[in-house]
Hints:
The protein has helices at residues 7-57, 62-68, 71-87, 115-122, 162-209, 219-282, 285-312, 324-330, 351-367, 415-425; strands at 92-97, 100-102, 127-128, 132-133, 139-146, 154-160, 320-323, 338-342, 346-349, 372-379, 383-389, 429-435, 438-444. The protein is an alpha+beta fold. The mean pLDDT is 77.
Amino acid sequence: MKGAWSVWSITWLSLVAVSLGSVLVLVALTGSSVTDALVQGLEDHVRAEAGLVATAAAELPVETVARIGGARSRAEIDARLEALREGGHLHDLALIGPDVVLGSGGTWLPGAAERDLIARAVAGEVVAGPLYTAADGEPYLTAYAPVPGHPGWVAAVEGSGATLRAADRLRRTQLLVSGVLLVLVTAGAALVALLLSAPLVRLERALGAGEAVPVEGPREVRHVAQTLDGLLGGIRERDARIAAEHDARIAELTRLAAGVAHELRNPLNAMSLTVRRLERLSGDEQTAAMSGRLLDQVGQLEVIVQRLVDLTAPLAPAAETLDLRALLGSLAGEVPLAIDIDGDGVLVGDRGMVLQILRNLLLNAHQAGATRVHVAIDAGPALVASFTDDGPGIAEPDAAFEWFHTTRAQGSGLGLPLSRRLAEAMQGSLTLASAHPTTFQLRMPTP
């Protein structure tokens, strides 16, 4: 079937598809699992740190500093908060009160976006904010916890997500390694597919070329090859037997035809001479008319004998380059038929043999009652000429090329078998393409 995929393609694509799917699923599951675990761990860490900072800040006089101020007092609190930040390995830390921020340089940048989280922490809940990427390109996570004993105050911490960035690098490395592995798997799949499909390809080529079937490859392929070898051996034996029987029958018919032709020629020559002598001796018109009819019938017998001789004679065709249109034109006056020629083409063959084939085809059409023959010439890799006539058609198409088969009272049934034999002797063929309307197809080699 045209367009069908080869065994190699199916095997290779199947292995690659399975490998690719496995790699993608593994990468997706591994990447998402690692990221989820890291985010969850970071959330737990910053919430715990926020709780510790809130507990430590409970001892600080944050309301007094916020209400009275003073650079020294603020500096002491900032130093205490900085010590807490370093001790907790945090990126940033602050105490957020009503309209005031202690630590973090007096400004808490995530505050504007996380007011709802701060409000929940003021209400007494320890909460973690969403993961975000800062202006420096680093991922961070915030957390808020209420400061015991200081209503309205919350401890805000910001933890670095450097581990997430490392996980991202790990994921990219994993993708790169997966890509390299996929390339290696693709090459390996191609090799495996080649090893699996090569015996089948060789088997296909051997069958197409008519060569001995190679018994090789995997067990199943060897079994198929052995079965095919047995079947082909049986077919070859049958064909050889049929060919031998056919050759024997042809040889027998050839000897019979040659013998009949030899035995008939001498009596026919004698009959012809006797009839001509009677015609000269009698001198009357009635005898002359009868003699003419006898001579005509003797002539028909001589034509049959000559065809038998032609049919049994050895063939040694010459190889000439011939113009088919010109050959048909040279026969136009021999047969009372209108010949329409469509196309041009040259062929390689014996001029006399090709003319005999064309003459037989045109005479058959005329004798069957046709008045016009259309010849379509297709000059492809081989020249193909189709002869279609306007006659009544052929009643028994299967017997068209049988020896001595004819539907005419005075036909010999040798013209078409002889024409086919001549065509095959020149490495061509003559077939009946259609019985209604009658169309014979002559195929001949080209230069």
